[in-house]
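#help-structures
NK: newbie question, is this the right format to request a structure? protein is Diacylglycerol O-acyltransferase
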Amino acid sequence: MVAVSGEYALEEPMSPAGRLFHTRGFNCFVIAVVGSSEVVDVDRVKIGLQQSLLKHPRFSSVMEGDDGKGGRRRWVRTAVNLDNHIVVPGIDPDMDSPDEFVEDYVSELTRSSMDTSIPLWELHLLKLKTKNANSIGIFKIHHSIGDGTSLMSLILASTRKISDPDALPSIPKAKKSGNGRGHRTGLGGVLFGIWWGLTLLWNTLVDMVLFVMTVLFLKDTDTPIKGKPGVEFNPKRIVYREFSLDDVKLVKNATKATINDVILGMTQAGVSQYLNRKYSADGEKADGASGNNLPENIRLRANVLVNIRQSAGIEDLAEMMERNSKVKWGNKIAYVLIPFKITIPEDPLDYVRQAKAIIDMKKHSLEAIATYRIGKLLLDLFGIKFAAELMHRVLSNTTLSFSNVVGPAEGISFYGHPLTFIAPTVCGHPHGLTVHFQSYVDKMMLVVNVDESVIPDPHRLCDDIVESLNLIKQAL
């Protein structure tokens, strides 16, 4: 048993977003699959967890209370028995299809609920050699503990560089894009500032009108990849593909875009190719060679959950676990709706150009802050159930969830186990398709998470997205 000590309060109220993730129809949890080049040493992992992750209050607290009759959920510190959280299944290391076994194992985890009488996290350790690892670790963490970015950052704060076992991982920081106002002076600067402010207000107004319309009635086209009502309760199939980050950077530099622009463009391309096949007469063509079979004016949008809290850095989280120092934690999230252009253009580079135009407009909008403020206001006025219904309607009326997470720039180890890949995703929300990208060293991992009753061939969709990057690269 691991005792609880330190400066943290023994009882803390659960944040509004944390409470939301315990409402019916929005019981979300994070799944993160990691591979190691070494056979896992279970005892070493347990010692490492005791010395780091368990010092975080959310990993050593249970949820108590409820939101009914004026009650309020809260976190209460408790002793942690690692045997309740570390699962080491007995498996045949010489099985014929280890990768398929891991895929099935992860799918089973999406079926099971979490035991609320203990802290809401699990770590499954599989001593199994797959095509890209010699053992597998699978984290399952309830979303009420924290948003996806914070949870991944916390896990990375428990790792160290392979080249320097005492050093924390290096996470590339995104360059801040300038708005162009700093180099303009005089009347030109004043006029540009006015134009900049007006376009910011206009973009925000358009985004908020579309957001309100989505809450009320605006639904995406009912395509073969859109989930049906109740999709959030169905088990999920999670598949992933590794591809070259250098290829993404090549396209980025050639098109003067960003990595986000490129991966959004390749996702649009892959989804377009997949749908084009579904709408074709024979259903066999893997590309646009047979022509454009897509219906006109498909409305298809991705929902991006944005963490608007300034996330604690890797160093801050590591210090927190070592010294119980306080850093801001929890879920402080907002919505951004990204429209996908579903088409088969003659020039594959159009996918990147379209993605760049959309993201540039979203960057010059206060949509995320506005949706967060509206959600918080409605929660304060009408309660958690009303806010949960609003969020549920927004996701139900769109088609997929999308995210991109920047990972370590060089190899890292998890309690002495060198990692070969990191593949995170989220389950429990009302989408039949979720697409995540996770970078690690010079590789990018694409993670596709589907309801198989909606998308029965997720490997084909995965291939379409990765192959689309090759088509875009060749078009250069």
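mod (FA): yep, format's fine, and the tokens are attached above. Confidence is low (pLDDT under 50) at residues 1-6, 285-289.
NK: thank you!
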